[in-house]
Structure formats: structure tokens, C-alpha cells
Design brief:
single chain; alpha+beta; Jelly Rolls; three-stranded antiparallel β-sheet; disordered N terminus
């Protein structure tokens, strides 16, 4: 069953694939959407105010060689999401990273929950988002954290989080945005393509409605949602073992929860 593409989130699509066992998706040829424009700086223009950058542009990003190496090491180990190593990776690189935690807590200003933990590989001919924009929304109900491998390149469609782009459910647990809707037109005058080259890897924090394309590399993707939006997501299933339960308990807090389950 596929959720309504006009709803806030891809709901069932997310629920079915929180932990991929497969490798990142196969490369595709670069589409005509790609350009030879110079890459943007590897630090957002509003780096001193990440929340403002997310509200206005839809994204904050910064190069970080430590994260780049950690992502590459995690990939070499086969993306062990459902293990102690996987939970430690999530905790250290998202929940314990003050840059990320401070943005999540201040942006929502209420309890939120980590509900998505997955890897996405290069697919340069397609654009994706986590959510569709609803007409009555002013702020996103979810934030997306991308932890980038070394040698990554991506395109962020700044301003797309403020447009109704009618993205449709894709087969990778995201929504796919029709490329023609991301071209600057009279109907979408505020969309700007920001091409970013993260030679050494790094991180990005996105409004969940923002469109993006992975041109090269891979992104460990972690999603945070407020309680209302989280109701559309399924729990992320882990093996029912005590050591993993203890790890999850350590990750939980009064401001940010984690949406894991341990089925019998």
C-alpha cells in the first residue's frame, strides 16, 4: 500500500524501509538538470545561524572531514544499522553532535523523535524530498540530517520547501519530485539550484520538504519529526536483544526520543 502523495509524508513507504540491507542505489547517468556551474561553498552562507538558513533556504550544510571518514568506515563495514555499531554511529554523529542537536531542539521547540535511519546513494537524474508541503504549513514537521561520505556532490533546490511540488512516492522510501517542477518558472520563481561539493564529506540539515539530488557519493540519512508527523511513520525494528535495548535507552531523552521497536 502506498500512501497519499499529497499527505504530509510518504508514510507507509518510510515505514517499510527504515533499515536497508542493500547497497546504495545503482548509479544513473547525469541528467540534463545537471550543469557545469561552479560548486557552492562547502559552508552555508548563514553558517552562524543554521536555523535561519534552514527557514530561508531550506538547508544548512558544512564540510567535516571527521564525518566523511566515519561514513566511509561505516560503509566499509556493510552499513550495520541493526547492530550496536549502527546505534553508536547514530548516537555519536547525530544525537551527540551539538550542531545537530541544538538545531533540532531549537527549530521544533517541542519534543521530537528520531524516526528514520537509512543510507541513500547517488542517483543524479532524480530529485527527492521526505515530505510534501501542505498549504497551511509555515514550518516543516520534520528535519532531515544527511551525513556525507568523502567525495560527495549534491544539489539542493533552495526555496523548494516553500512550494507545492506534488512529489510522488518513490521506491526508496522518499518522495520523488518531477524535475520540471524544480526549474525556475513564473509558478516557481523562488527555486534556486545550489550545487555543493564535499570533497572531505560533511553534514547537512534540511527542511523535510526540501528537494535534493545526490550527484555523487552517499548520505547516511537521519530524520527527526514532531509527534503529529511521527504518527504517520512506522517504528524502526531491531533484533529483540538486551544489549540493543540498553543502547536505545541511552539514546532516549526528554527532548528527543527514538522510534525503535523490538518485535518478539
Amino acid at each position: 500500500m502506498v500512501s497519499n502523495p499529497t499527505s504530509k509524508s510518504p508514510a507507509t513507504t518510510i515505514c517499510q524501509f527504515p533499515f536497508p540491507n542493500e547497497q546504495p542505489h545503482s548509479p544513473l547517468e547525469i541528467s540534463s538538470m545537471s550543469t557545469s556551474k561552479p560548486m557552492a561553498s562547502t559552508t552555508s552562507l548563514l553558517a552562524d545561524d543554521p536555523q535561519k538558513s534552514i527557514l530561508e533556504d531550506g538547508v544548512f550544510y558544512a564540510e567535516d572531514p571527521v564525518i566523511g571518514k566515519r561514513v566511509d568506515d561505516f560503509a566499509k563495514n556493510g552499513f550495520p544499522f541493526k547492530t550496536e555499531e549502527g546505534l553508536d554511529f547514530c548516537k555519536v554523529n547525530a544525537l551527540d553532535d551539538k550542531r545537530i542537536r541544538n538545531v533540532v531542539e531549537s527549530y521544533f521547540n517541542e519534543w521530537s523523535c528520531l524516526g528514520l535511519f537509512k543510507v541513500f546513494g547517488r542517483n543524479p537524474s532524480r530529485a527527492y524530498s521526505l515530505l510534501n508541503r501542505m498549504e497551511e504549513e509555515t514550518k516543516a514537521q520534520a528535519l532531515v540530517v544527511q551525513l556525507w561520505s568523502r567525495g560527495s556532490r549534491m544539489v539542493y533546490y533552495s526555496g523548494s520547501h516553500l512550494q507545492s511540488l506534488q512529489a510522488q512516492p518513490a521506491d526508496i522510501g522518499l518522495l520523488e519530485i518531477p524535475l520540471d517542477r524544480l526549474r525556475r518558472t513564473e509558478e516557481q520563481p523562488g527555486i534556486k539550484h545550489i550545487e555543493v561539493d564535499m570533497k572531505d564529506g560533511g553534514l547537512a540539515i534540511l527542511d523535510g520538504r526540501l528537494g535534493f539530488t545526490i550527484v555523487q557519493g552517499k548520505a547516511i540519512t537521519i530524520g527527526f519529526a514532531v509527534r503529529e508527523e511521527l504518527g504517520h511513520w512506522g517504528k524502526m525494528r531491531l533484533p529483540n536483544v538486551e544489549k540493543l535495548k540498553r543502547k536505545v535507552a541511552e539514546m532516549n531523552s526528554t527532548t528527543i526520543g527514538v522510534n525503535f521497536d523490538f518485535p518478539e
